[in-house]
Amino acid sequence: MLKEWFTEGIPIAEGTEWVTDKITEKLSFLFDPIKEHFGNFMDFSSEILMLVPPIIVIIIVALIAFFISGKKFGLAAFSVVGLWLIDNQGYWEHLISTFTLVLIASLLSVIIGVPIGILMSKSKTAEAIIKPILDFMQTMPAFVYLIPAVAFFGIGMVPGIFASLIFATPPTVRFTNLGIRQVSKELVEASEAFGSTGTQKLLKVELPMAKTTIMAGINQTVMLALSMVVIASMIGAPGLGREVLSSLQRAQVGTGFVAGIGIVILAIIIDRFTQSANSKEQ
Amino acid sequence: MPIIEAKNLTKVFGKNPKQAIDHLDRGLSKEEILKKTGSTVGVNRASFTVESGEIFVIMGLSGSGKSTLVRLINRLIEPTQGSILIDGQDLAKMDKKELRQVRREKLGMVFQRFALFPNRTVLKNVEYGLEIQKVDTEERMKKAHEALKLVGLEGYAEQKPEQLSGGMQQRVGLARALANDPEVLLMDEAFSALDPLIRKDMQDELIDLQSTMKKTIIFITHDLDEALRLGDRIALMKDGSIVQIGTPEEILMNPANDYVERFVEDVDRSKVLTAGHIMKRPETINIEKHGPRVALERMKEAGISSILVVDSKRNLKGYVTADDASEARKKEVRDLKEILRTDIKQVNKETSMQDIFNVINGSPVPVAVVENEKLVGIIVRGAVIAALAGDSEVNLEHA
Fold it and tell me: Which of A2, A88, B224, B268 has the fewest CB within 10 Å, making it most exposed?
């Protein structure tokens, strides 16, 4: 066999396929219910959001924008105009789908990423193992994840979330690790010297101190999740991304531009929201 | 019984501490071990005891291992070898839970750069130690307020640490350590980050606090003046080893080796030495028995130009000068009282040299050292200068 590897090439592709097939087959008892229930949950979430009239959503977003930006009108005004424009162009439903996808993917990324980041910060071994995996996750072209995502979860929102998770989680992990490692040594010593348990040290000192850094990571994660919406639409995830994709396929410059603008508006609003939630603390 | 006892306490940083310890046992120096094994000896077989209620100063230059040593005392750094007994229990052998208990109940720590939690208010900072022990809110507020009052910061409870000056921040650090009511306070260069005037205030305040609290304080510093001001006893460290332990006077007057001697060479002795250290046995005459003739005789014998006059109980009466005595003899005056001068400057044994300067300046005659109105010694100008120059002939037995 070794000789074949040299003459014919090592069958990495075949191996990967075999592994993916096996996982699909053996873990279908796990994937199928996820696909079904989680898919239903996602649909349900976006349907609920769509029940709310756009005007109410716009007002709420504007109000929140006004208060988190320190009672300035800039962000609020931008939100009103931007969201109204999207509604005006008839993309409201797509916007809600995209938002749901980004929101759920980001939440899951944070839920998974923060504990992994904490683990990394506490153990050199964990850091040594996880770091290259994160590099791999971020540098592997995102399209590649779509293939196993479809194999595991079929098409629709769920595989989109799966692909987003892989692509968007690393910043949260990295920044959590970095944030905790950057907490001043004296502060950690102080908390230990007074007899804190490991959990108390983490919850009362390390996480609060690392919060700004972790939030910066989460902001990145959200942005990456958003950047995945177009790619995820290739495997049937609904939303603005699908409009961009279909206009690409039909060479409709105008539609593509409008849907793209929609994504940009959503990106700016989400970015400013997550950032100001952070800077307010400083 | 000593409250803290360190035996052979050793810390080696690096991958192969065992090997480094073998080398240490064979008497190799820190540099040789670093070259041979790549391991750094942080603390080298330190042994000392700290008595309850004393201020024990650990002093050394940077890199001497003093900060490592204080962290071995509460095991923020794991000792490589040796034991550290607190109230007879070996900290080095405790499991995590027992260690936490000791840290919570017996050890408080104050840090060089304050290490206050910036996201908490002053009060919440002070409460920290109690909070992690799950003391109920009301009691911990009460204790935290008491601790803040102790350091004079009652009004600042709701401020954030960054709103306070350095000196105030360190008071918060001190209050935080005191709120737990620990037996031992570990102060790691606690005043080093403060500017000199504030530092001196804090030192005075610590001495005041100590006189009422009677805590055991282990104080780390690189500043010899600070060590001499605060310490009941001082341990001097070099290259991870303790080179001398003693009272400030012992360190100053009997340096154990060249290193200590060079270290104390530049110290401002005037702050440490007192009249008791530099006074000499006085030449006197008794006003009830002697006349000018004897006075003159004594002065001639001792080669001095004035002599102190006492009564039979050695109470200081004044002095006579050689000129007056010789005049009196010519005029056949018999009674010393007629030539007695009483404008003599007096100090007591605890008067510091700095204060003696002011007294001796402009005084033509030696200054008398008086204890309960009885004459115990005199200070001549020469002795003051000799003491400042570091002359070790200064008599310690009066100290």
Answer: A2
CB B4 within 8 A of CB B86: yes
A208 close contact with B: CB closer than 8 A:
yes
Give the domain CATH number at B290.
Answer: 3.10.580.10
Strand partners, B268: none
B137 inside domain: no
Averaged pLDDT for residues B103-126: 94
Q: Which amino acid is at B373?
A: E
- Inter-chain touch A194–B101, beta carbons under 8 Å: no
Inter-chain CB proximity B111 and A194 less than 8 Å: no
Q: Virtual CA dihedral for B390, B392, B396, B399, nearest 10 degrees?
A: 0
The residue of chain A nearest to residue B70, with distances taken between CA atoms, is A193
Residues B249 and B279 in one domain: no
**Cβ contacts (< 8 Å) between A199 and chain B: which residues?**
none
Each residue of B374-388: pLDDT tens digit? 888 888 877 777 777
Range of the domain at B355: 275-398
Angstroms from A281 CA to nearest CA on chain B: 9
Residues B287, B262 share a domain = no
Q: Which of B225, B251, B267 is the last residue of a domain?
A: B267
Q: Which residues are CB-neighbours of B122 under 8 A, at least 6 positions away?
A: B148, B153, B156, B157, B158, B159, B160, B161, B164, B172
Q: Mind listing the pLDDT tens digit for each residue in A170-201?
A: 999 999 999 999 999 999 999 999 999 999 99
Q: Could you tell me if A279 lies within 8 Å of chain B, comparing CB atoms?
A: no
Per the confidence metrics, is the pTM higher than 0.80? no
Q: Is-contact B187 B218, C-beta < 8 A?
A: yes
**Which band of pLDDT confidence, cut at 50, 70 and 90, is reported for residue A258?**
very high
For residue A76, being part of any structural domain is answered with: no
Residues forming beta bridges with residue B286, ordered by sequence position: B310
Closest Cβ opposite residue A190 in set B104, B109, B180: B109
Would you call A195 and B76 a contact, using CB atoms and an 8 Å cutoff? no
> Rounded distance, CA A102 to CA A110, Å?
12
- Model confidence over A76-129: pLDDT tens digits? 999 999 999 999 999 999 999 999 999 999 999 999 999 999 999 999 999 999
Domain membership flag for residue A66: no
Note the ipTM here.
0.78
Same structural domain for residues B204 and B249? yes
Do residues B279 and B251 share a domain?
no
Q: Do B74 and A194 touch (CB under 8 A)?
A: no
Contact B217, B55 (CB under 8 A): yes
Stretch B123-127: mean pLDDT: 95
Query: Tens digits of per-residue pLDDT, B141-156?
Result: 999 999 999 898 989 9
The whole domain housing A189 covers 2-51+89-279
In a mutational test of the B interface, the residue from A124, A192, A194, A196 whose CB has the highest number of chain B CBs within 10 Å is: A194
